[in-house]
Amino acid sequence: MKRISALAATLAAVAMLAGCGKKTADIDGVRIAAADGNAAEWVTHGRTYGEQRFSPLDKVTVANAGELGLAWSFDLPENRGIEATPLVADGVMYTTSSWSVVRAFDARTGKLLWEFDPQVPRKTGVKACCDSVNRGVALWEGRVYVGALDGRLIALDAKTGKKVWSVVTVDQSKPYTITGAPRVVKGKVLIGNGGAELGVRGYLSAYNAKTGKMLWRFYTVPGETPTDDAASDPAMKIARPTWNGEFWKVGGGGTVWDSMAYDPDLDLLYIGVGNGSPWNRDIRSPGGGDNLFLSSIVALKPDTGAYVWHYQTTPGETWDYTATQHIILADLTIGGKPVKALMQAPKNGFFYVIDRTNGKLISAKNYVPTSWASGVDPVSGRPVETPNARYGDGFAMAMPGPLGGHNWQPMAFSPNTGLVYIPAQEIPFPYMQPGGANANFRYQPGVWNIGVDTLIAALPDDEAGLKAIRASLKGRLIAWDPVTQTEKWSVPHSGPWNGGVLATAGGLVFQGSATGEFAAYDAATGRKVWSFDAQTGIVAPPMTYEIDGEQYVAIMAGWGGGFALTAGAGVDPRSEGPRRVLVFKIGGKKTLPPRPVSTKVFPDLPPVTATPAQIAAGKLTYANYCSVCHGASAVSDFSIPDLRYSPLVAAADGWKGVVIDGDREPAGMVSFARFITPAQAEEVRQYVLSLAQAQKARAAAAKAGT
Ligand code: CA
Asked: Which of 379, 527, 568, 603 has its CA 20 to 30 A from that of 131?
């Protein structure tokens, strides 16, 4: 496997010469294409256009990783999930926090150079299925690009952080959000969006990096009518016949919310496409159909957005099995032949190796248990579905569930070991047609529209039930051989929803965990060689860079995101602490402040006055409208208030003021008066009050040692 081609080395030399007298972050396509020959920097999201997240730096090794210590850290004022990959160029680190806040640091000292807060209206937060996160910036010719949660794409001066231009990339009256990192290819800033759980139509747009002018837009699913002059118009001729019914009323989905990769030699841009809206195909496209290009990898021409090929991982998607997961490009040798491979481990549990020149399947194998399909047919490239996988004949407990065998947390590929390191997880989900009080699904603008029964997916309300759930959820770091499609080794974590991965030429793999442990493993064996207590859970991926001959390893810490919000109670112990940037080097001597102690106290709780039937109704309303942010069974992930401890649970008027009248809209909690009545809001309060009393009794019993 080649590491650095002669061409890339030449380009690197050219880039270094061109670098004399360069502006800050004067990144361009030549410099990104030559990134492998410029090991010191990390200039685009996945480090290279191929997004391998492999660093050629080798000063930190299996032998000396034990001497890693903190070089500097920066505590972030934001308190939501942290998912960004910092970029480093010309000695400056550029990164993002929750609410799309951008910061630049001196990468050697951690000194804050500038900060840009796009002032995202906090009420935008309810449009974000999976927290107000941001996965990072792009750099191009002296500018820093960020996608803001409210749908703006903003260009900043890399030196000052001052805004150069800003464009709105979405219809802000619809539940679109941006959480993904832009990429820049050939002077075009590429940005997608999210919102398929709430009901939107997905697309990717390209903007002129200099001016912010939109150049093309590729829709991933058809609309009600042809979208004249969209780059996707010819491709929609392929897609439209694969749909039925009035799918456009619920948006169709297919959002491009995370992964992209680019091959400069083939001049192909690869994008990962998300799930259907709603999830349930019976509702979305009655009568079936593959529903292109849901859950597909699509290859486009970056100059025009023209369609080249697609590979659909999950035809007729009906489980939230997105193919937005990390895409890695690598040149492999399979069966003695060189293969230009594209690799992905999407949510559906299969690891795909695809020929990136033409989109043909080379191989697919499950990397976690998959109950919905027994395999992938090598000839047709289609999954072999199991009976009742589509839950048409009743309830089906499926593995993976909508959180995936692997989610957005990036993998890494080491050309030295030939292995892909996957942050994998096992989180089953009970799929069921919306029945009972959920029957007669109807689209409701601006809220969760998934078209499956939400009540049976609620976590148990009792501690014993929660314990059993926790024991059934798994998280592992898997070292996967993409040539033989076999697992080489794996390291178990205490639960799911851990961090992204970095591989280095020092023979190391770095990963953080939900429990706040940031660790280095021997890439060949999985042996843990170093770890650090970050005092806060980690989901973001690490990165590494070098300044003046010294190698640094950086990671952003702060638990959050989709699983944390909805099912944070499913991981124990979780780690609650300040969100931070952490940077390590050999011999680093800095220390963190002592681990903070939880200060949660219960308010004085009045007795529950509702009837059991009213509490049951409150539980259903909670499952439909509240649990996606405040957590199943009202157990929060720390970043959004745990309602069981809220004084409002004891105050009917105050509760109504927030839920119905929108008293806390500036803080992000919008009024739900469009969806629920004041009486329903009170039923929810009574339900949460009953949970709070149970939790208070448990806490008292634990304190008394009984
Ligand atoms: Ca989704």
From this structure: 603
Question: What's the Cα-to-Cα distance from 408 to each of 321, 346, 498, rounded to whole Å?
Answer: 12, 9, 11
| 293 preceded by a cis bond (ω within 30 of 0) | yes
Instruction: Please tell me the distance from the alpha carbon of residue 59 to that of residue 52, in angstroms, as a whole number.
Output: 19
Question: 9: buried, middle or exposed (CB in 10 Å: 19+, 13-18, 0-12)?
Answer: middle
Q: Which residues surround ligand 1, an ion (CB under 5 A)?
A: 275, 320
Those residues whose C-beta lies under 8 Å from the C-beta of residue 581, and which sit 6 or more positions away, are: 73, 74, 76, 86, 93, 95, 105, 110, 554, 555, 556, 557
3-state helix, strand, coil in the chain (%, to 5): 20, 30, 50
* Residue 404 Cα to ligand 1 middle (Å): 10
Ligand 1 centroid distance, CA of 33 (Å): 31
Q: How would you label 419-447 residue by residue, b for 16+ Cβ within 10 Å and e otherwise?
A: bbbbbbbbbbbbbbbbeeebeebeeeebb
**In 3D, which of 314, 315, 313, 342 has the Cα closest to residue 327?**
342
Rg value, the chain, Cα: 24
- Quote the ligand 1 centre to 452 CA distance (angstroms): 13
For the beta carbon of residue 521, count every other beta carbon within 10 angstroms.
26
Give distance in angstroms: CA of 610 to centre of ligand 1.
35
Element (H, E) at 292: none
Burial of residue 243, with CB atoms counted within 10 A of its CB: 0-12 exposed, 13-18 middle, 19 or more buried: buried
Residue 151: which H helix or E strand, with range? none
What values do phi and psi take at 573, rounded to 5?
Answer: -80, 140
Q: Cα(26)–Cα(29) distance, rounded to whole angstroms?
A: 10
Residues annotated as catalytic are: 320
E-only strand ranges, 117-177: 138-140, 143-147, 152-157, 163-168
Determine the distance separating the centroid of ligand 1 and the alpha carbon of 506, expressed in angstroms. Answer: 36
Q: Is the pTM of this model over 0.90?
A: yes
Report the first-to-last Cα separation within the chain, whole angstroms. 60
Ligand 1 center–CA 496 separation, angstroms: 17
User: Cα of 285 to ligand 1 centre, how many Å?
Assistant: 17
| Distance from C-alpha of 342 to C-alpha of 358, rounded to nearest angstrom | 10
Domains contained in the chain, CATH given:
24-427+473-586 (2.140.10.10), 612-705 (1.10.760.10)
